[in-house]
Amino acid sequence: MTNNLHVALGLTGAGWHPAAWREPGARPGELLTAGWWIDQVREASDALIDLVTIEDSLALQSSDPDGPDDRTDAVRGYLDAIVLAARIAPATTGIGIAPVVSTTLTEPFHVSTQIATIDYVSRGRVAWFARISPSHWEAAHAGRRGLPSPEVLRAEAREHIEVVRRLWDSWEDDAEIRDVERHRFVDRSKLHHIDFEGDRFRIRGPSITPRPPQGQPPVFAGDDRIGADVVLRDLVVFLDASAAAAAERRARLDALHPFAPAAEVFAGTAAQLADRLEGERFVRLLPAAIPHDLQAITRELVPELRARGRARTSYGEGSLRERLGLARPASRYAA
Amino acid sequence: MTAKRQIHLAAHFPGVNNTTVWSDPASGSHIEFESFVHLAQTAERAKFDFFFLAEGLSLREHAGHVHDLDVVGRPESFTILAALAAVTERIGLAATLTATYHEPYELARALGTLDHVSGGRAAWNLVTSMDAVSGANFSRGAYLEYGDRYVRGGEMLESATRLWHSWGPDDVIADPATGRFLARPDAGAFAYAGEQVDIEGRFTLPRPPQGRPVIIQAGDSDAGREFAAEHADGIFTRHGDLEGGRAFFADTKRRLAKYGREHDELLILPGVTFVLGDTDEDAQEQAAWVRREQVSGPTAMVFLEQLWNRDLSAYDPDGPMPDIDPIEGESTIAPGSIPARGFTGRRQATADEWRAEAEAEGLSIRDLMVRRAARQTFVGSARTIADQLDEHVQTLACDGFILVPHITPDGMDRFADEVVPLLQERGSFRTEYEGTTLREHLGLAQPWPG
Questions:
Q1: What Cα–Cα distance (Å) separates residue B382 from each residue in B13, B185, B278, B388, B419?
Q2: Residue B433 Cα, gap to closest chain A Cα (Å)
Q3: What gap in Å lies between CA A50 and CA A5, rounded to an integer?
Q4: What average pLDDT score do residues B243-265 get?
Q5: Are B366 and B318 in contact (CB under 8 A)?
Q6: B-contacting residues in A 59-78 (Cβ below 8 Å)
Q7: pLDDT of B428 above 70
Q8: CA nearest B117 in A: which residue?
Q9: Cα four-point dihedral sign B113, B118, B119, B123
Q10: Is-above-0.90 flag for pTM?
Q11: Do A87 and B59 touch (CB under 8 A)?
Q12: pLDDT of B133 above 90
């Protein structure tokens, strides 16, 4: 059978369980350092995982969806995912890197040039994990008040992503000509205003950054209503040698700190998880505890998938986009 | 004998303007990461204080078209600097960021993260730009009146500073034994309400290693100097000549006392160019060639149209100056151009002056524009340049230099290999980094110690 399973690993804090930072092997004092992140991404790239996502929010983690909590017993704090992604890129090879970036609280022009720049730095390995920010509390950080409904925010997200993509296309691939005879650095007929006019954004372009190596870096999301290229199905993962051990560890962590994620939770063995992934194409595995569940994924699940012909044996030469089976499109503005 | 004043040096990545000679066969990419790595690593090998990036949030336009005679295209600043943090260890990483098209929470998070992931090497060159061309690339558009720009700049800096300060240095405990991750439940709490910035909540980013990244200010007006004297750690100035530099230095440092600050708490760093030759004569010859390359015939016509504010395509750059008069008023031919705007109100007088000069000396349009628009600050052998740089710093014309090479990415190589050792011999420049953070390189205290 052909391998059509693509696995993303979602990285955050010491893992997705709020008590994970207290587990043996966690390095809780280093979670906000570049070194910790690079170590985790290298662990993933050694296993030839397709990509990692770098979790982020403009609001601190909280057990209360409506605002901050007073807890001091769980990981709090984020590095800016897009800046962190850029720091990680030259220190890694092969693996895709996808910072989580809000469409509600950012300017598409900045997001477009930032992702494009990381695409140059990483030689075609960057992606964007896009999502809306429906929390009034988070929005107030960015000075945005009177936040509309999630439905409107999803419409804004579609506009935002469209603007970012048009800006990536606003330079044709061969716009830089360096014609010394005619004194022309670029062929300006290959630079385009995007002249986007939507309900939220009116953006003229062109970009300041030439078209990125992938042409269109992939856009991922967990929501199928915002116009991403690829929607990832999330699974929180507890992996152990037996299903009982995984359930027991989950119960032990839950006793320290209750955890009720919106995503599906899987607790079991690597073989059982491989069974669960039959029929899936694009999943994002969220390790409940790092390093435990991350290493169980890279060192047990991945060999199991490989034995079933469902995990790659090399990254190959292509860009992230090509590896995902997405063609490299010509600029929409190319004649 | 008193210790010599120490020179501070920064490497400016060549810009998207005519200073950069892209027509030279040695000229490399302005977008591939390797070019940035080369210049940053060269500057770090030479023990420079920091690497410096300008910013532009739209492509330059002239006469309704993208200006295509100079380098066009650049990376985004936060991300390229964060990537450079991965391939360097000590050198500071300075981003020019406009207060106009960035938001305080976004800027403080990104710059604070750069400070974290570089081990305390981030700097912000704060500018307050305003042009309709860049504004059209952002959802809030071009909405600031000129007078509001320093208000915006001040509120951006104050609010960003409040965000960086919102976490204490010891707020992250992360002790698994006791189960305490935070020292206090309200770490990161902040509120800022100004005329243009109104934000509150809890900041996501723990205290950056430098406390506050190094703040550089670029702006030469009286208001700009005052702003720098009150808030900044450094000034990026145009005053690279000895006399102008001394006057600027004295004026700016004099303003510090009002804010309870000492002279060494604000560094004067002019942006300067250089042409380095085997001998002084060789350097002069090269410099003349570089100036002609920097001002080609078409570039000369663009400069002239910035003043004339009208189409001059009927004129020959190798011929005499136009006999028609300029069109007074705001620049319509180059709406985003600072030089074009600078002529407003004195177009006719300047044109008359230029025509008289060209006529008196028999200069073509291009000859005159080469003279007017292209001038290197330091030209000479390595020894001559080292002598001059040292004289500027020792005689209080500045505290150091932001050096702008005209070739990408190798334009700093000879300077690093030949000029820096002479400055080190003189005892005016470090031979090793003594600290790890940019504040330490610059001799600046950490704000909010402990």
A1: 21, 58, 8, 10, 5
A2: 22
A3: 10
A4: 96
A5: yes
A6: 59-60, 68, 70-78
A7: yes
A8: A34
A9: negative
A10: yes
A11: no
A12: no
- Say which of B58, B79, B186 has its CB closest to residue A118: B79
CB contact under 8 A, A202 and B141: yes
Dump pLDDT digits (tens) for A3-49.
689 999 999 999 999 999 999 999 999 999 999 999 999 999 999 99
Cα–Cα dist B426/B414, whole Å: 18
Using alpha carbons only, give the angle B425, B430, B267 rounded to the nearest 5 degrees. Answer: 120
Chain B residue closest in CA terms to A28? B174
- Interface contact flag, A79 B56, Cβ < 8 Å: no
Q: How would residue B334 be classed by pLDDT, with cut points 50, 70 and 90?
A: confident
Residue B220 has pLDDT above 50, yes or no: yes
CA distance A320 to A231: 16
The predicted pLDDT at position B1 comes to 52
| Interior angle at CA B209, CA B204 and CA B211, nearest 5 | 80
Report the chain A residue with the minimal C-alpha distance to residue B74: A209
- pLDDT given at position B311: 95
CB pair distance less than 8 Å for A77 and B206: yes
Beta bridge partners of A238: A267
pLDDT reading at A1 higher than 50: no
What is the interface pTM, i.e. ipTM, of the complex?
0.98
Structure-block tokens of residue A94: 């092969």
Q: Which tens digits make up the pLDDT trace of A170-227?
A: 999 999 999 999 999 999 999 999 999 999 999 999 999 999 999 999 999 999 999 9
Q: Does A126 touch chain B (CB under 8 A)?
A: no
Nearest Cα of chain A lies from the Cα of B363 at a distance, in angstroms, of: 22
The whole-angstrom separation of Cα B323 and Cα B190 is 61
State pLDDT tens for residues B437-446.
999 999 999 8
* Helix ranges (DSSP H) in chain A: 34-46, 81-88, 108-122, 136-141, 150-169, 243-256, 270-276, 292-296, 302-307, 320-323
Q: For residue range B343-370, what is the model confidence (pLDDT) as tens digits?
A: 989 999 999 999 999 999 999 999 999 9
User: Which of A26, A32, A205 faces B116 most closely, judged by CB atoms?
Assistant: A32
Query: What is the reported pLDDT for B448?
Result: 78
Does A33 sit within 8 Å of B80, measured CB to CB? no
Contacts of B116 in chain A (CB under 8 A): 32-34, 79
In this model, does residue A234 exceed pLDDT 70? yes
Q: What is the residue-wise DSSP string for A178-242? A: EETTTTEEE-GGGB----EE-SS-EE----SSPPPTTSS--EEES-TTS--SEEPEEEEEEE-SS
In angstroms, the CA B232 to CA A16 distance is: 41
Confirm if B413 and B403 have CB atoms less than 8 A apart: no
Nearest C-alpha in B relative to A74: B181
Task: Tell me how far apart the alpha carbons of residues B122 and A79 are, in angstroms, rounded to a whole number.
Answer: 15
- What's the pLDDT tens digit per position in A186-196? 999 999 999 99
Using a CB-CB cut-off of 8 Å, the residues of chain A touching B75 are: 113, 116-117, 120, 209
Write out the E strands in A21-64. Answer: 51-54
Does A82 touch chain B if contact means CB atoms closer than 8 Å? Answer: yes
Contacts of B184 in chain A (CB under 8 A): 72
* Residue of A75, A80, A333 best to disrupt the B interface, most CBs of B under 10 A: A80
User: What is the sign, positive or negative, of the torsion defined by CA atoms of B376, B381, B385, B388?
Assistant: negative
Q: Using one digit for the tens of pLDDT, what is the confidence trace for B32-85?
A: 999 999 999 999 999 999 999 999 999 999 988 999 999 999 999 999 999 999
* Structure confidence at residue B294 (pLDDT): 94
Closest listed residue to residue B270, CA positions, set B283, B296, B252? B252
The answer to whether the CB atoms of A79 and B137 lie below 8 A apart is no
Residue of B nearest to A118 (CA): B79
